[in-house]
């Protein structure tokens, strides 16, 4: 063994005799052995392929040099790939105004002291017209007790969903859901007031090609509705606990028994089994898994004559299974499945935002009702104003409806005018996967593709410099970078004693490779005759990397 070491040492010393000069930027160093190949291999597959060792007796400059080398290697650690499944966050900004009405102009409206007017706008003016002109309001709804009802037509940045049942879960019709805003204004001796329950935002579902409130339809799980400018899918409506759960669709389709859908962030939805429980009745076993571990599970009847649905919610993930069936040979089953993320529970009868309470909109034989419990025929959701009375409103005053729409008063510098109108100046951020459509602020947006150089962020550990007392040439499992000469670094001293490197007090800045000297792994010595020369060698290496 000793003879073998002497032979290797002779080769190394011989190499030192033909050392070449390395000049990199402002720094220069002598290099011995294949330094270029060593430098090219410090990072492999995005991870550090070396350990860094500094002497226990090293000067402060050596420690700093080792840290700088580690930082440089850390900066090289990333992975690259081709975008196959991508996503993007898109900002959408929209502004619009409704028609206006002059509260002081008899040609527009005659509103005497003590009288009230209900103003209505919608995503589509035809719906607003019908809501103002033909709708009957329940006696306990403030909008029932008004002197006049006026439509302000379309507020184009309110949202309309033109097909709330895109997978035809319930029927084949392209039923609609439309956003509305309501404001009841009272003339109080020439001043104008908006009192508690005088204003509301609502999203309401209508039968296909119908615009009158009498032709609204009941909401159902799986339906899509707009809510404050964004499209959501209904995951669950609970009359027992008075809430409506809604989420953002990530999948709406068929999942085969035994297969799963990967949502991302460690979550998957699995259809474990489909069991036939009668001639045409089926039960589905569905699981939500996090990092491969089941965190929520349901086994329930789906479809059939009763139209049963399996509904499962866990930590923002929502699942609705509407139907199940088997293939012709009864070998395996399928489940018609909706999956949502960002699923939230909207508590009816509670404040959704300060001063705005969530109610359900009811259709009771054609009459518009509001309730703070999930009861009756629920055709929509509403946010009703429950704050303090807003009194003595005049030109320049504004009233915010659900932090979404603003009712504005403006005299246009004419004391004989007071125009009232709705306006919006709203921004939304939406996340889209490639190929996904989204309806936001009444704009249909589709992410067609992502054109980018893909760099995936991954968890990586940059090399940390350790002391020579904590490292060993015999036990190394990767290449080593030794900072400091034989006087300060014990491992460099071992190599010098074996004749594998030749560094003394007169040596210039040197980068020397001892091939296979660390348990079969290469070693790079970064050193010089003094601490300044060692620092210069370290800077030369950093410039190479």
Describe this structure in words.
Residues 118-454 form the S-layer protein central domain. Residues 34-545 form the S-layer protein outer domain. Pfam families: S_layer_C (PF05124), S_layer_N (PF05123). This is S-layer protein (TIGR01564 family). It comes from Methanococcus maripaludis. By secondary structure, this protein is mainly beta. The protein has three domains: 2-78 and 458-544, 2-Layer Sandwich (Chitobiase, domain 2); 91-242 and 348-427, no CATH class; 248-342, Tick-borne Encephalitis virus Glycoprotein, domain 1. The strands form eight sheets. Strands 8, 9, 10, 11, 12, 13, 14, 25, 26, 27, 28 and 29 form a twelve-stranded mixed β-sheet that branches. Strands 1-2-38-39-37-5-36 form a seven-stranded mixed β-sheet. It has a six-stranded antiparallel β-sheet with strand order 15-16-17-24-23-22, with no helix packed on it.
Write a concise synopsis of the structure shown:
With 545 residues, the chain is mainly beta.
Q: Helices, strands, pairings?
A:
Blueprint: H1 2-17, E1 20-24, E2 27-32, H2 35-40, E3 43-44, E4 47-48, E5 50-54, H3 60-75, E6 79-81, E7 87-102, E8 116-122, H4 125-133, E9 136-137, E10 148-154, E11 160-161, E12 176-188, E13 191-194, E14 199-206, E15 224-227, E16 230-238, E17 243-256, E18 260-264, E19 267-276, E20 282-290, E21 293-302, E22 310-314, E23 317-326, E24 333-347, E25 351-353, E26 356-364, E27 367-371, E28 378-385, E29 390-393, E30 398-401, E31 405-410, E32 419-433, E33 437-440, E34 443-446, E35 454-456, E36 466-467, E37 479-483, H5 490-497, E38 510-518, E39 521-527, H6 531-544
Helix pairs in contact: 3-6
């Amino acid at each position: 063994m000793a003879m073998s070491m002497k032979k290797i040492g002779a080769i190394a010393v011989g190499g030192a005799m033909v050392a070449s000069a390395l000049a990199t930027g402002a720094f220069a160093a002598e290099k011995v052995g294949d330094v270029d190949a060593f430098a090219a291999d410090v990072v492999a597959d995005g991870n550090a392929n070396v350990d860094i060792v500094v002497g226990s007796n090293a000067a402060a400059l050596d420690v700093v040099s080792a840290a700088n080398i580690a930082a440089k290697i850390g900066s090289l650690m990333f992975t690259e790939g081709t975008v196959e499944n991508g996503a993007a966050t898109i900002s959408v900004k929209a502004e619009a105004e409704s028609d206006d009405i002059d509260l002081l102009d008899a040609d527009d409206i005659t509103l005497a002291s003590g009288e009230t007017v209900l103003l209505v706008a919608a995503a589509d003016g035809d719906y607003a017209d019908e809501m103002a002109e033909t709708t009957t309001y329940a006696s306990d709804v403030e909008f029932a007790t008004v002197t006049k009802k006026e439509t302000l037509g379309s507020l184009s940045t309110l949202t309309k969903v033109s097909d709330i049942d895109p997978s035809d879960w319930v029927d084949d019709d392209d039923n609609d859901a439309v956003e509305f805003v309501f404001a009841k204004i009272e003339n109080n001796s020439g001043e104008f007031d908006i009192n508690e329950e005088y204003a509301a935002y609502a999203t309401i579902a209508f039968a296909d090609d119908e615009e009158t409130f009498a032709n609204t339809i009941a909401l159902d799980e799986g339906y899509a509705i707009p809510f404050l400018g964004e499209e959501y899918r209904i995951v669950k409506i609970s009359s027992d606990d008075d809430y409506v759960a809604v989420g953002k669709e990530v999948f709406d389709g068929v999942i085969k028994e035994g297969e799963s859908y990967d949502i991302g962030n460690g979550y998957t939805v699995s259809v474990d089994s489909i069991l036939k429980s009668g001639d045409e009745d089926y039960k589905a076993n569905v699981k939500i898994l996090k990092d491969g571990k089941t965190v929520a599970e349901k086994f329930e009847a789906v479809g059939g004559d009763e139209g049963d649905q399996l509904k499962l919610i866990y930590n923002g993930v929502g699942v609705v299974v509407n139907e199940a069936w088997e293939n012709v040979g009864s070998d395996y089953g399928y489940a018609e499945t909706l999956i949502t993320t960002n699923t939230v529970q909207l508590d009816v009868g509670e404040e959704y935002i300060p001063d705005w309470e969530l109610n359900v909109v009811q259709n009771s034989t054609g009459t518009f009702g509001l309730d703070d419990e999930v009861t009756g025929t629920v055709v929509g959701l509403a946010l009703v104003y429950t704050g303090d009375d807003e009194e003595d409103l005049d030109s320049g005053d504004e009233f915010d409806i659900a932090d979404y729409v603003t009712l504005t008063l403006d005299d246009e510098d004419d004391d004989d005018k007071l125009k009232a109108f709705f306006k919006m100046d709203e921004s939304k951020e939406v996340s889209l996967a490639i190929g996904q459509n989204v309806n936001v602020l009444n704009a249909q947006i589709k992410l067609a593709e992502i054109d980018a150089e893909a760099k995936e962020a991954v968890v990586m550990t940059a090399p940390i410099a350790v002391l020579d007392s904590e490292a060993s040439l015999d036990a190394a499992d990767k290449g080593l970078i030794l900072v400091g000469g034989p006087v300060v670094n014990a491992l460099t001293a071992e190599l010098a004693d074996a004749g594998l490197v030749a560094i003394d007090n007169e040596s210039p800045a040197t980068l020397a490779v001892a091939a296979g000297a660390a348990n079969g792994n290469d070693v790079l010595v970064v050193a010089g005759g003094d601490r300044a020369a060692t620092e210069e060698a370290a800077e030369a290496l950093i410039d190479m990397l």
